[in-house]
Specification:
single chain, elongated
Amino acid sequence: MSGEQILGLAGRLVLLLLSGALLLLNAVGLPGNWILLALAAGYSLVTHFEHVGWGTLGVMAGLALLGEALEATVGLVYVSKRGATRLGTLGAFVGGLAGAIASSTVAPPVGALLGAFAGTFAGAFLFEYMGERRRDRALRAGRAALVGRALAAVVKTTCGFWMWVVFAYKLLVRG
């Protein structure tokens, strides 16, 4: 193996580490899968599609779309099946976003992750309580939103993991 080949392999390994870290963004509601796809597309353009081609980018884009669709579906279906109103569901969304932003400076990225989950619960609770004025229903909506958010994050991150596996395979095995 020549020095140039070793350097190329080292660069691809660093790229895989960076792209793997992007999966953490999914947990806080940020577009980690899409950033991973953009990183793969950028790498493809820079290397003239030597390792990663259009087919691979298409598969990765399909997985990113699937992750988005499943994230929205899992979160909404879980919360609505557990009795939250539309107002509680809206509160979960607003609270999750506000919690992630407000706590993003506290021990990044863990602070944003915890803030997103806490905000999801608090938002669903507060919005549901404003509409229903019943603490028990508001608590149930908050719990449902929290569990739904966690399930949705797991589903989206799983799709991102498979995107990463496809990317890694093309970079290391087939490249």
